[in-house]
Design goal:
The chain is mainly alpha-helical. It contains seven helices and no strands. It starts with a helix and ends with a helix.
Length: 165
Amino acid sequence: MEIVLLSVAAIFMILGILGSFLPVLPGVPLSWIGLLIFFLIPGVGVNYVFLGITLFVAILFYILNFAIPAMGTKKFGGSRKGMIGATIGLIIGIFAPFPFAILLCPFVGAFIGEILNKSDSRTAGKAAFGSFLGLLASSFMEFIVTFAFLILFLYQFWSYKEFIF
């Protein structure tokens, strides 16, 4: 049973890392589920403080993952409509069936939002570029957090290896 749970936890950790690049998978929450499954292994004591702190981090970064592209739009001179357009584009991009939709849809959404705000095409393009940079920044941030969760997972595994094997 221990090996099965350890394998499932490791799969969730790998899916979390992949999710930091693949927008269909929520990377940080998947990595946290991997940590949770690890602590469900018989012989490994549940560390509620550790799980609570990592859950807080997972929720925070999951929310930031949606907010950062909108903040990038604002930073590059976008309006509220541009930020809303970038957020809607991000959500549409997650479910759109064409390649690179997650990169294109926030850009297009911010551009359309700025055009609806009566901005010229240059201002709209600048705001849309900010949305794209925000998306790249949030993906990089998500990778860092999922990698940190992987390091914590490996550390915990090493600490409890005698109970597992």
